[in-house]
Amino acid sequence: MVLSKPVDPAFSEDPELARRARGVARLDHVDVEILRMMQEDATASSTDIAGRIGMSQSPAWRRIAALERSGVIRKRVAVIDRSAVGLRFMAFVFVRLKDQAQATVDGFQQDARAVPEIVQCHVLMGDIDYVLVVVTRDIDAFRVLVREKLSRFSGVSGLDSRAVLEEVKNTTELPLELLLEAPAA
């Protein structure tokens, strides 16, 4: 029998577990500025970022690498215009579960993660258990998705959907300027 040492969750191979175990990152104004620039353009090089904030490339690169290691920067991606690629239908789907047993919750979350049309899944407080953000080509594809997949998810007792008529604001950029404000007393 081989006994293994317990692993500190802060050093877990699961990035989400590690991030939660480490808690909130301590960021200074330079880190916040780097993050702001990277939110605007994730393809910016460390040399470009360094020049814009007035430091040399190596310290900027080290800060970016540290932000990535700590989980503050999860990944760098391209933001794609869904309408431009033919995914013109978006809906919010409100989900009620039959119960809150761990097996029910785990089963639902596993099912939700497996469906690419679900681009966001959030646990809610109150009488609705989850809200899903779903994108499809059109309303017909959405109808098929609801009937053939969503309604068959583990533990679902009810679904309620709202179609998006117009997208007024959709951003991935966080309000980083709030990090520089002094907390209210």
Report on this model:
With 185 residues, the chain is of the alpha+beta class. Helices cover 34% and strands 16% of the residues. The protein has 6 helices and 4 strands, in the order ααααβαββαβ. A hairpin with a 6-residue loop joins β2 and β3. The radius of gyration is 21 Å and the shape is elongated. The N and C termini lie far apart (55 Å).
Notable features of this structure?
185 residues, alpha+beta, Arc Repressor Mutant, subunit A, Alpha-Beta Plaits, 2 domains, four-stranded antiparallel beta sheet, 6 helices, elongated
- Which consecutive residue ranges, at least 5 long each, have pLDDT under 50? 1-5
Strand order of the largest sheet: 2-3-1-4
Supply the CATH superfamily name of the largest domain.
Lrp/AsnC effector binding domain/regulation of amino acid metabolism (RAM) domain
Structural class: alpha+beta
Concise account of the structure shown:
This protein has helices at residues 15-22, 29-40, 46-53, 57-69, 102-113, 139-148; strands at 89-97, 118-123, 130-136, 156-163. It has 185 residues and is of the alpha+beta class. Helix 3 crosses helix 4 (57-69).
Secondary structure: elements and pairs:
Elements: H1 15-22, H2 29-40, H3 46-53, H4 57-69, E1 89-97, H5 102-113, E2 118-123, E3 130-136, H6 139-148, E4 156-163
Antiparallel strand pairs: 1-3, 1-4, 2-3
